């Protein structure tokens, strides 16, 4: 009798699983999940605050010094960039060249940063109601790629960080202009294999996405080293993700279906 | 007291999900705390708590919605079948009993969740190396938390009924 009762309870739990999975994917289920996220918002806030208190999600002193140094170099680069931009505009005018890209972008606040099986994810407060769809690209305020939309609900979205293992991107080295495929390794690192051994890709170069619908795609990472095997025709390049998902408070989602060229 | 302690452990779970993990598995604060209370509450309370905190965890997980809720509900059933062992008074019997239920719950969450995700999205959630590491992580946390929470149970042994 006891076994029968247990079997009935077990079957009930399995049916509950099926119902919950089905319910979670319906519109009503999505609204329910948005409500839960609202309820959990204070918990997310306390969790983020605690992480900052213990030093996670905060820059160390060495990192801050490195950033100040990098900031000074970037100021110099920005000056050069502004000059080139003005030159480019005058050339466009001279040749009557017009090509613009319309990009649908929506901003969102980061509610929570979490890991599952060593993979990193972000929970943000915008969803399908803001036009977000699975597979959309997510960038930060510096136009660095953060990741890809994994699951979108009515008013919430789960973003998978680009460097998670299993993620693959078609990229281009900047400024070397060599195309390759970057494979996510986890821990905010990428591996780029089958790069010709004679290709000049210095440390500090960037990699940018090529198939994102932009003239120049969002920047994904920075080259930190290379591995060349003796006698091999190819080398492997190691890249780190430039964006810091644990420090992000806001992100921007590029709505792929609204991004198009206007000529 | 039950709700307060579970809320604190839920918060600890959120903090640990943001970074603290061994072999890709975060310490199961909430699952262990739930099992601790499951051994001391009646079925209705166990069921309601499992469902509420399961749904909370589902909203911050990448596994299909419902995986945590159902794993916790199944843990309620497992606890029911092992209740005599939970209260045997023998430390190692209690710890082993908790370890079995905790291990089953974690396996159900991580591997059941990945399997459900694979069925729904046809994309493997982890590769073979991650699988091996995750097993190590589940073993490690099961052993550590079973002993810790059984010890904690000893502190409460004089007052079994809280609700």
Please give a structural write-up.
- The complex is a heterodimer of chains A (263) and B (163).
- Chain A is an alpha+beta fold.
- Among the domains of chain A are: 2-53, no CATH class; 168-241, Thrombin, subunit H, CATH 2.40.10.
- Chain A contains three helices and twelve strands; from the N terminus they run αααββββββββββββ.
- A six-stranded antiparallel barrel of chain A has the order 1-2-5-4-3-12. Chain A has a six-stranded antiparallel β-barrel with strand order 6-7-8-11-10-9.
- In chain A, α1 (2-25) packs across α2.
- The mean pLDDT of chain A is 81.
- Chain B has 163 residues and is mainly α.
- Chain B has one domain.
- Helix content of chain B is 74%, strand content 0%.
- Chain B is built from seven helices and no strands.
- In chain B, α1 (2-17) runs antiparallel to α2, α2 crosses α6 (91-121) and α3 runs antiparallel to α4 (67-81).
- The longest helix of chain B has 31 residues, at 91-121.
- In chain B, 50% of the residues are buried.
- Chains A and B meet through α1, α2, β1 and β2 of A and α1, α3, α4, α6 and α7 of B.
Identify the notable features of this structure and list them briefly.
heterodimer, A: 263 residues, alpha+beta, Thrombin, subunit H, 6-stranded antiparallel β-barrel, 6-stranded antiparallel barrel, 12 strands, 32% helix, 37% strand, B: 163 residues, mainly alpha, 7 helices
């Amino acid at each position: 009798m006891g076994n029968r009762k247990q079997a009935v309870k077990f079957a009930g739990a399995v049916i509950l699983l099926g119902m919950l999975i089905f319910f979670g994917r319906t519109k009503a289920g999505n609204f329910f999940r948005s409500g839960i996220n609202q309820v959990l918002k204070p918990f997310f806030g306390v969790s983020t605050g605690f992480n900052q208190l213990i030093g996670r999600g905060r820059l160390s002193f060495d990192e801050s010094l490195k950033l100040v140094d990098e900031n000074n170099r970037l100021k110099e680069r920005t000056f050069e960039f502004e000059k080139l931009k003005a030159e480019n505009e005058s050339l466009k005018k001279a040749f009557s060249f017009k090509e613009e890209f319309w990009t649908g972008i929506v901003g969102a606040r980061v509610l929570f940063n979490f890991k599952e099986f060593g993979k990193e994810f972000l929970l943000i407060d915008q969803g399908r109601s803001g036009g977000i769809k699975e597979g959309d690209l997510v960038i930060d305020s510096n136009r660095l790629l953060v990741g890809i939309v994994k699951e979108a609900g009515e008013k919430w979205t789960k973003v998978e960080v680009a460097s998670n293992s299993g993620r693959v991107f078609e990229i281009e080295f900047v400024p070397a202009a060599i195309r390759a495929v970057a494979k996510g390794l986890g821990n905010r690192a990428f591996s780029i294999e089958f790069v010709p051994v004679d290709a000049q890709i210095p440390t500090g170069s960037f990699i940018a996405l090529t198939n994102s619908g932009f003239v120049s795609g969002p920047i994904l990472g920075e080259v930190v080293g290379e591995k060349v095997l003796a006698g091999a025709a190819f080398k492997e390049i190691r890249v780190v993700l430039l964006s810091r998902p644990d420090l992000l408070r806001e992100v921007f989602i590029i709505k792929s279906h609204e991004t198009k060229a206007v000529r | 007291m039950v709700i307060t302690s579970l809320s604190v452990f839920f918060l600890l779970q959120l903090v640990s999900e943001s970074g603290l993990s061994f072999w890709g598995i975060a310490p199961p604060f909430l699952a262990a705390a739930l099992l601790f209370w499951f051994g001391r509450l009646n079925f209705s309370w166990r069921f309601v708590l499992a469902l509420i905190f399961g749904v909370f965890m589902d909203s911050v997980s990448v596994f299909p919605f419902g995986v945590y809720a159902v794993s916790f509900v199944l843990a309620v059933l497992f606890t029911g079948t092992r209740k005599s062992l939970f209260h045997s008074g023998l430390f190692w019997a209690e710890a082993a009993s908790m370890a079995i239920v905790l291990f089953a719950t974690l396996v159900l969450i991580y591997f059941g969740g990945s399997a459900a995700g694979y069925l729904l999205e046809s994309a493997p959630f982890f590769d073979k190396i991650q699988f091996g590491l995750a097993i190590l992580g589940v073993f490690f946390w099961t052993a550590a938390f079973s002993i810790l929470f059984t010890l904690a149970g000893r502190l409460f042994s004089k007052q079994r009924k809280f609700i």
